[in-house]
Design a protein that fits this description.
single chain; about 425 residues; alpha/beta; FAD/NAD(P)-binding domain; 6-stranded mixed sheet; 4-stranded mixed sheet; 26 strands
């Protein structure tokens, strides 16, 4: 017999909101947070549900993994960010089911009713059918992932400092990063800088020149989504800094400390004390759940195919935004990428569209403004394509830094990040090298 589920009727934050429409937001990432901010102070009840009690600034996770910044620099408590809004309640937990007919989500074995539902549950790492690889190749999607990579790298260096076996030392000083997109390039560059320059100053028994960071990607160049000119600049800079590029290679097997790659020249075996995975993502399981409950369509990556207003067929009250949605109503018909920029614009537009609907007012159609793309590939070196303006080098890094500080949701984090970045530039010392 199925467990009985009771409706969870929360006390409204204000008596004035007792009969107000209830908007439930699943996910406190870029899209969900922007939607909540847009609804703050309006005559609607808002309940934001997330498995975590913080908003994570994912673009800087690699800096946590490489000891540049601490976890508190890239994570902000949701209650601090939204708690002052009189119409917003925050619940920590996981949505396990959605009942469109009852207009309710299942949360902690109880049902929470909604009038409008915004699903912004994001994405997780994909190992392309080889989930067993995750035990040996750490992904880069959460704070725990970033902390795990930092722990592995620093622990390996500590062991290398006192081992007398040169072969073992070489293994411990080696890192393999799978995936040549922005996250992979940024992680490889930062770990390479950590291992070569921090070793030289702080360790006495190991040779930093023996450190090895290898970036593996199946394509013919890194950053394939960017302009070929910028992609080449990034690849050339990575190689100049000492990062080895293994391009055109597809991973065939991953074991503890060992990775087998199939290339045009045959199989290549790489041995490393740390293996990181940034090669792919898949949509949140809530996408599949929505398809089962509503009959909506999913794309090959498990993302929900949505209408021009981000709703799903037959359920205008359900909107899907961020990494979980496949939005193809663009000029070229290509789905918007799963990045921070599109997610923020989606979340804000949907929130305003709901408000316009409640007030029986017209609302313009969604139009994505592409500000460009960028990636940092070393200290004071980044590549950026800003609406046709191609920049690389130190000026690219400056633009990258300003853009990330602008996207950072909390002023306190902006200040701490700026301070730590300036300190690293001046001293090359990293502030978060504690092994936990």
């Amino acid at each position: 017999m199925a467990k009985e589920r009771f409706f969870l009727e929360l006390t409204p934050p204000s008596e004035l909101l007792r009969d107000a429409p209830h908007v439930v937001i699943i996910g406190g990432g870029f899209a969900g947070l922007k939607a909540a901010h847009a609804l703050a102070g309006k005559t609607v009840r808002v309940t934001l549900i997330d498995r975590r009690n913080y908003n994570l600034f994912q673009p800087l996770l690699y800096q946590v993994a490489s000891g540049l910044v601490s976890t508190s620099d890239v994570a902000s408590p949701l209650r601090v960010m939204l708690g002052k809004s009189p119409n917003i309640q925050i619940l920590m937990g996981e949505v396990t089911d959605i009942d469109p007919s009852a207009k309710a989500v299942v949360f902690d074995d109880r049902q929470l009713r909604y009038d409008h539902l915004i699903v912004a549950a994001g994405a997780t790492s994909s190992y392309f059918g080889h989930d067993d690889w995750q035990a040996h190749a750490t992904p880069m999607k959460s704070l725990s992932d970033a902390n795990a990579i930092r722990h592995q790298v620093l622990s390996a260096l500590e062991e290398a400092e006192h081992t007398s076996d040169p072969k073992r030392r070489q293994l411990l000083q080696s890192v393999v990063v799978v995936g040549g997109g922005p996250t992979g390039c940024e992680l490889a560059a930062s770990l390479n800088d950590l291992m070569r320059h921090t070793l030289e100053r702080d360790f006495k028994q190991i040779d930093p020149h023996q450190s090895r960071v290898t970036l593996v990607d199946p394509g013919d160049r890194v950053l394939r989504a960017m302009d070929p000119e910028l992609s080449k600049a990034a690849g050339d800079h990575l190689k100049r800094c000492g990062v080895e590029l293994l391009l055109g290679g597809r991973v065939q097997a991953i074991e503890a400390g060992r990775l087998v790659v199939n290339t045009a020249g045959g199989e290549v075996t790489l041995e490393a004390g740390t293996i990181c995975w940034t090669a792919g993502v898949c949509a949140s399981p809530l996408g599949k759940l929505l398809a089962e409950r509503t009959g909506c369509s999913l794309d090959r990556g498990g993302r929900v195919e949505v209408g021009p207003d981000f709703s799903i067929p037959g359920h205008p009250e359900i909107r899907v935004v961020g990494d979980l949605c496949s939005y193809s109503h663009t000029a070229d018909g290509k789905p918007l990428p799963g990045m921070a920029g599109p997610a923020v614009q989606m979340g804000g537009w949907v929130a305003h569209d709901i408000l316009a609907h409640l007030q029986n007012q017209p609302h313009g159609s969604f139009s994505f403004v592409d500000f460009g793309s960028m990636a940092v590939v070393g200290p004071l070196f980044a590549v950026a394509n800003l609406r046709g303006l191609k920049v690389s080098g130190s000026f690219g890094w400056l633009l990258w830094g300003l853009a990330h500080l602008a996207f950072m949701p909390e002023n306190e984090n902006r200040l701490s990040l700026l301070t730590k970045w300036l300190w690293v530039i001046a001293t090359r010392e990293r502030s978060a090298l504690v092994i936990q």
